[in-house]
Structure formats: C-alpha cells, structure tokens
Write a structure and sequence with these properties.
With 256 residues, the chain is of the alpha/beta class. It has one domain: Rossmann fold (3-Layer(aba) Sandwich), CATH 3.40.50.300. Helix 1 crosses helix 10 and helix 4 packs parallel to helix 5. The protein is globular and about 60 Å long. Bound molecules: adenosine-5'-triphosphate and magnesium ion (MG).
Length: 256
C-alpha cells in the first residue's frame, strides 16, 4: 500500500505544486513507484508543471464520472519510468466532487504504488478538506514570511483534527543571506512557533522555481531522503553565502 501524502499550505503561491513535483520526481529517481495526483479541481496545473499536458487524455474527474478506468487516466512521465501523473480538471463549482469519490480512486490505485503525492489547492475550504481526507500524512509548505507562517499555523491546527500519521513542515524560498544576517527566523524558531517538525528547507533558487527535473536540487534530495528514512537532516541554505566569496555575494545581494 502507498504512503498517501498531501502537500498543503493554506496560503497560495508558496510552492506546493513545485514541491509536489520535485519530491515525486526525486522519489521516482530513487526507485520508488510514485503517483502524483493533482488535488486542485479549480486551478489545476500539475500536468503543465510536469510538462505532460500534451499526453493527458483522461483525468480524475473522468474516472469518478465513469468515462474511463483509473489506469487509463494515468500518464507515465517520459523522463521518469516510475512516475505517473493523475491530472485534475477545472470543474465548475456546481459539479460537486466529493472527498469520498477521490479517496475511492486513490485507494484503488494504492497497491500499485509506494507513494501517492497529492497536490492541494490553496485555501482552507472544500478543496483543502477533499485533498486532506484522502491522505494519511501531510506536509505543510510555508515560506519564512510572517503572513505565510500565520497561514501555516492555521493549517496545522486544522490538520491536527484529522489524526494523520505524520505532520511536518517544509520551509520554501529560504534565503541564506537573510538567515545569516538574522533578518528571518531560523528553522528551529519556526519549528517552535508552529509546534511541528521541519522535514526540509528549500532555498530561493531559480532551478527550484522552474521545477527543474533533470538535475534535481540537492535540497530536494535531502528532503526526499528525510521522508524515506525518517531522519531530520536539514540542507544548509547559508552555504552559498559562507566564506569570503559568499560574503561578497551577500553584500552584493543586499545592495541590489
Ligand atoms: N524555491 C523556490 N525558488 C524560487 N521560486 C520558487 C521556489 N518555489 C516556488 N517558486 C515559484 O513560486 C511560484 C509559485 O509556486 P507554486 O505554483 O509551486 O505554488 P503553489 O503553492 O502551488 O501555488 P497555488 O497556491 O497557486 O497552487 C512559481 O512561479 C514557482 O516557480
Ligand atoms: Mg499549486
């Protein structure tokens, strides 16, 4: 049976889809059988981010409404033999898709996978509840900014009522220069504030933002390894700014 993990945040645009895709790709690269499911039934974009939109014939709504079998809606990623994408659909609010219907599809596919990663929509309403109800574990993505942290706190409070097996936090878009100068909270401070363990740190980086799948960022590798081994090793986001050259970069970045 697969580990079913929902990637959520409350706040929009903090990097849920980016993390869901990169984590899925890295796990698949490590030999795990991974299903990445788009749990966003409004602003669905996993197929575009994974660059497989031209391969999608059916989506999860077609499966739920009986137009195809679940297997027919899976798209095998051309670059990762073990990674399958189950796309979503931009359904109208009148076309109600229940959490039970989505759960039924994912539970049916579960024996064929080691991981099912579910990309959650922003917000804490129906879409959030539908995605979380299908999962056994949750990863809350936040940035170190106060507004994102407040939303992460609210999200974690809600998630606690679901009695999930695992609940952890990923801090995205972390800037090593700001961490070194004390202008943002440290991972330890964020963990204490949110009362949740930190699964990983992802730096502010163009290659992460672009969902670069061909040379997956080392920070994603550390995070994926934490997920599979249960360790809590954190990627050093300040590394780039250490030493003489690093200090120079830091001063330069501050001036720009
Ligand atoms: N670590 C990062 N460094 C730089 N850019 C990033 C990073 N993570 C994400 N981004 C960028 O931030 C933007 C939002 O990311 P993404 O779409 O993954 O967020 P989201 O939480 O899924 O958004 P939504 O709530 O709308 O679904 C994208 O343009 C992405 O490229
Ligand atoms: Mg998204």
């Amino acid at each position: 049976m697969a580990r079913k993990i929902v990637i959520t945040s409350g706040k929009g645009g903090v990097g849920k889809t980016t993390l869901a895709l990169l984590l899925s790709a890295r796990l698949a690269e490590r030999g795990e059988r991974v299903l990445l499911c788009d749990g966003d039934f409004g602003l669905n974009n996993v197929d575009i981010c994974a660059r497989v939109e031209h391969l999608v014939t059916y989506d999860i709504v077609d499966v739920i409404e009986g137009r195809c079998r679940a297997k027919q809606a899976l798209v095998k990623h051309p670059d990762f033999g073990n990674l399958y994408i189950l796309s979503s659909n931009n359904t109208s609010p009148e076309r109600y898709i229940s959490p039970q219907a989505v759960k039924l599809v994912l539970d049916g596919l579960s024996p064929q996978f080691d991981f099912i990663i579910l990309d959650c929509p922003a917000g804490l309403d129906d879409g959030f509840h539908r995605a979380v109800a299908c999962a056994d574990e949750a990863i809350v993505v936040t940035t170190p900014h106060p507004s994102a942290l407040r939303d992460a706190d609210k999200t974690l409070a809600l998630l606690k009522s679901y009695h999930l097996k695992e609940l952890s936090v990923v801090i995205n878009r972390y800037r090593g220069d700001l961490l070194l100068s004390g202008e943002c909270l440290s991972p330890k401070e964020i963990s204490e504030l949110l009362k949740a363990p930190i699964l990983g740190l992802l730096p502010e980086d163009y290659s992460i933002g672009e969902g670069e799948l061909f040379s997956i960022h080392p920070a994603v590798r550390v995070l994926a390894s934490n997920l599979t081994t249960g360790r809590r090793k954190l990627y050093d986001v300040t590394k780039k700014y250490a030493g003489l050259w690093g200090n120079f970069k830091r001063v330069l970045r501050k001036r720009l």
